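Thiamine-monophosphate kinase
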Amino acid sequence: MELKEVGEFGLIERLKAGAIVDPARVVMGIGDDAAVLKGEPGFLTLASTDMLVEDIHFTLATATPREIGYKTMAVNVSDIAAMGGIPEQALVSLALRPEQQVEFVDELYAGLRECGQRFGVNIIGGDTVSSPRAMVINLAILGRVENDACLYRHGARPGDILLVTGDLGGSAAGLDTLLSPRPAPAEVIAWARARHFRPTPRVVEIRAALKAGGLTAADDISDGLVAEVYTLATASRVGIVLEAGAIPIAPATRQLAAIYHKEPLDYALYGGEDFELLLACRPDKVDAVREAVNRACRTPVTVIGRVVPAEEGITINHRGRVLPLTPGGYNHFQLDR
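Tokens:
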């Protein structure tokens, strides 16, 4: 059987079997944005890792080394934020071609450090090896969260309200401008490029939201809103109804969608790499969460749907019609991304 037959998520399910040999400190292993371990008194330790591979996650023809470094750190910080935590330490491992310029690596680390400084993350170690072809960057990150504050994908319940931070689709629009450049206002292209290479992990937002209370589940939007909705619904054993008209899409994303003859909603639903947070919240706490985040950092938090019983499935209310929501998003090893 080939990997493309099982896909990324099928492979993960296979790898989970027998992975935990000593469960004494393991609260959550494989299957969420980060692993959760029992830590110092009153806290849980969070651990996550992401690997970026040349010509899959980035190309040297379209990205600067500083952008690659910044994004590598940011996507890992986002995993810690999705669990409600505070990022603290990182280890960076690199596979590099021998002919790679030292100045390139200097700039790569400048990007890593820039994002690390912004979110309080130390780079405490790692490894370097030679690679005959593609460059590979792997970053492992550690963080912590209070025992009673950790958020998982499996906590949503029917009646909860679905929220999202920021806006969606900007990163996918930015990718289009890189891979297929077309005439567009310079400020729009610059904005979209930044959304793709310099996402903002929502650490401040999630910490403010936790203080307001009422959150029941969370996931960061790395593979696209639809993919994360399916992930959260599957983990929580619930259904979800999205409101298409409520999904936040920035004016620049809409402008680029018109230029590329695409639907803005497709960017938002299936684009991925926005690294916003998808949150499930008790109805009585929605206003408090939105107000708390607004006070902390002015990031908008939008109601985009609701959690329903599992038998109602995963649907989207689009222009008055409730339609089944087609699975999609980025999935490694599968050809139909």
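The radius of gyration is 20 Å.
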